[in-house]
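Table S2 (continued). Query chain:
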Amino acid sequence: MTELAEPKRARGRPKKTEGERDDGNRRQALISAAAQLFKRQGYDATSTREIATQVGMQPGSPFYHFGNKQDLLLAVMVEGMQQAIARQQAACALASDQETDSERLRRLIRHHFDVLLGPDSDFIPVMLYEWRSLAPAQRKTITQLKDAYEAAWIPVLQALHDQGQLQAPVGLARLMIFGALNWSVQWYEPARKNSKAARASLDELTHTALQLFLRALP
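Corresponding output:
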């Protein structure tokens, strides 16, 4: 009797079921909703019930994806930092070999303003506002991501320091620069249509920041 051949197994990972794909989408929806509410209302003033309601879930549904609200806060910050790192890498990849170090710093600052103030910019402000709400082990996770993000700035700042354009020590200058840029989330308001109030663009903020940080611009 002829034996039937075993069906060939598909190579690679098995495909996710529709339910598994939906779970991933729901988790991402919770992170995005939490980022918006944490930024607007603050972490302490936002309940998981509100977050669930915003994405059309039952009140207890967030706990299927996250152990508690603090884990959801960590996920918001991790999402924000991972996005910022990926977008910064993409921005730096566009740089030409002919760019000066001051132009590279301009690129980094402009990207950072976009992360802080541009579209979909809820995540990083939450990290700046709610850092103290994390547990110590969670802070370590965010610190590692933050260090990876800032690592791209160090050789640029060092080169500018060696050229005499950046007078402060590189380590201290980095802290002061990020402190100044990050504070913009507290006061910046974008330009609005039909508004008579003059608002600076992100390009104008970038140019002003360079004027503050460097001795001379090209």
